[in-house]
Amino acid sequence: MSSLPFSLPLIAAIGLSVHGLRKGSLSPTGASAAFAVGYTMLSVPLRAFGVALLVFYLAGSRATKVGKTLKKKLEEGHQDAGYRNAAQVLCNSLSAIIAALLWSALYEPGSGPAQLLQAANVTWLPGEHVPYNFDEWCPLTPPPAASWSRALLFVTLGNPLPRPPGTNGGLSRVGTLASLFGGLIMGGTHAAALLAQSAACRATWVPVVVPLLLWGTLAGGLGSLLDSLMGATLQCTRFLNSTKRILTDEAPAPAPGADVKVVSGYDILTNNQVNLLSSIITAVVLGALA
User: Fold this and answer.
1) Phi, psi (5° rounding) for residue 88?
2) Exposed e or buried b for every residue in 61-73, given b needs 16+ CB within 10 A?
3) pLDDT in tens, 248-264
4) Quick count: other Cβ atoms within 10 Å of Cβ 147?
5) Distance between CA atoms of 227 and 102, rounded to whole angstroms?
6) What is the C-alpha separation between 129 and 137, in angstroms, rounded?
C-alpha cells in the first residue's frame, strides 16, 4: 500500500509511538494505537495524509502543553504530558484513517483496502480505479476522477489541531483563535505536501492552496464550536468542593458522600465521545462541501 520504501512508514510509525511513550504523552495502549494509525496513514501513496498526521501529532503535543500549570490546578486527574490512551488516539483520528483507507481503495487497486472491498463484493463505491501519476494528476483538482480524492482530502481537515486546555463547553477568545490557527496550519500542511509531490498541483497551485487554507481555517472554527456546544450540553461537568477542582473522566472516583456539584451538561457523552463526534461531523461537512 506504499509507494515509499517499506521501511520508511514503519520506522516513522515506531518512532512516533516510542517518542510519545517516553515523553508520557501516550500510554502503552495509546502508543500501540498511534503506531497502527501512523503506519496506516504514512503508507498511503498520497503523502498529504501522512504528512498531516506528523504535523498533527507534533504541533498538537505542543498545543496541549499550553496552560498546563493552570489546568493542573483546576482539574482532578490531569496528566501533565497528556498520557493519551488508545481510545483517545482513535477518537481524534478515526475520520482521517477512514479517509486514507478509502483513498487507497479507490486509487490504488492493488492495495489491501481495495482487495478487501473487492473480496467483500462492495459495489457502492464509484469505480475510480485510475492509474495515478502525480506529475500529470493533481488529487485536488479536475478531472472528475479527482472528485472523491478531493472530498477525502478535505475530510482529513476535520481533524484540526487540539486547542489549549479549557473547561468543558468553554468558548474563549484565545481558544477560538488557537482553533482557527490550528486549522490554518493543517490546511497549509496539506497544500505544501500536495505541491511537493505533484507537478500538476504546482502548475495550478492557486486552486490547491487557497481552498485548503480557507477550508482548513473553517474546520478549526467549526470543530471548536461543535466541541464546545456538545461539551456544554451533552457532557456532564462535575466540581469537587473539597479540592475546588473539576472532575475529569480520567480522575479517580470521588469518595462516597463527597460534596460533588454538577456545573453544567447532562451525563450523555464522555469527553472522548465529544471529540469523536465533533471531528466526524466536521469531517463529513467539509467532505460534502468539497
Assistant:
1) -65, -40
2) bebbebebeebee
3) 777 777 778 788 888 88
4) 13
5) 26
6) 14
> Position of cell 472554527?
221
Q: Tell me how far the alpha carbon of residue 168 is from its chain's centroid.
A: 19
Cell 498538537 belongs to residue = 60
pLDDT for 123-175, tens place per residue? Answer: 555 545 555 678 888 888 776 556 788 888 888 887 655 554 445 556 677 77
Question: Which amino acid does the sequence have at 262?
Answer: V
Q: How far is it between the farthest Cα atoms of the chain?
A: 68
Q: How far apart are the first and last CA of the chain?
A: 25
One-letter identity of residue 66: V
Q: Among 101, 92, 118, 20, which residue's Cα sits nearest to residue 279?
A: 92
Instruction: Dig out the grid coordinates for 185 from the structure.
Output: 496550519
* Cα distance between residue 212 and residue 209, in whole Å: 5
| Other CB atoms within 10 A of residue 258 CB | 13
**Residue of 69, 74, 89, 70 whose CA lies nearest to 29:** 89
Whose CA is closest to 289, among 179, 157, 103, 197? 157
The neighbour count for residue 90, using CB atoms within 10 Å, is: 18
Taking residue 285's Cβ as centre, other Cβ atoms within 10 Å add up to 19
pTM tops 0.85: no
Q: Residue 265: left (phi > 0), alpha (psi -120 to 50), or beta?
A: left
